[in-house]
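During the reporting period the student researcher (J.K.) took over the structure-prediction task from the postdoctoral fellow and processed the backlog of single-chain submissions. One of the processed entries is reproduced below for the supervisory committee.
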Amino acid sequence: MVSGGSSARLLFQIFRKLGIGLGIAALLLAGLEGILRLSGFTHYAPNQIIIWNSHMDREMKQPQGTYRFQPYWSWELRPGARVADCGNERINAAGYRGPERLQSPSRGKLRVAILGDSSTFGMGVCQDETYAALLERALPNSEVLNFGVVGFTAFQGEKLLEGRVLTYHPAFVLVAFGAIDELLPALGYDVDDKFRITSRVRPWAALWRDRLRGLRLLQLIERSLGRQPESGIELRAHENYVKWNGGSRDYMRNQSVASFERSLVRIVELGRSYGARVVLIGPPRQTMVETRWPWANEYSAAIERVASRLQVPFWDVRTAFRAVPNRDERLFLDYYHPNIAGHRLYAKLLADKILHDARSR
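J.K. obtained the following structure tokens:
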């Protein structure tokens, strides 16, 4: 029979040996990690499918990249990432542009959340020049949260609203999709089919993988597994892009008009279920876009159609931009993105609408 004292000594010896073994293993792994780093070894395994595009998919795997993979809305801004050409500006710790806000609104503050694409994010302008920041300055006692993400479709906005935005309890949800990203060519899969694939990954697993991706040992393991992209996906993506670039209608879009409408309906339903006032915005774009791809107007019409059917406000920024002489030169950086003057007009239009709405309620 083993006494209590003997059992304690035995357990101590076992844990001591286990601790020594684990310590040695950790030293060996650390040494191997150091050797791999010194040798310059780097390997980022290819994705099974194209998440965004080949260039951005590679960037999302870089620890210093602006974006990272997110299984429900494909990609998101990386907290702390530097905003290009804007000095020391960085994405806030919660993963959106602008000052970080508490999830509950400050007492007496009107909280506005904006969903949108690169124009809402503020591609080509710095934070203080975005229409979201200008809108906050134009609205007394307000907090405007900018949830715009470059490349986002309404489908991704719907998932972001459900998974994150509504936890901030906005009084208004402004929705600005349908300018360009939905009608771009799908690279392998459209947003609906892509979601069915990527959503198999749990968000916590994607987050931890992103945090550990810089470890060379993990990269070595991924290389040894020899993961390859889905067969034929790059060829399908290229062929679809060529059709779109050549002006053909016979290509698969990022998001079809029918899917776009479903996303807008779902956004309105979600916002209403949380007590938010949802507004659908007709986003601006240069006239050249509609000249080259006339079906861009199908998305503009869909926004107005959904707003009418669900009896939510429709604020037509696109038409307001078109009333400005020489609008393409005066209000845009390029085919899709407003310049500083464009953001100022955008903010003024929205502020006037919100203030009028407040007075009439």
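The committee noted the following: The mean pLDDT is 94.
J.K. will present the remaining backlog at the next meeting.
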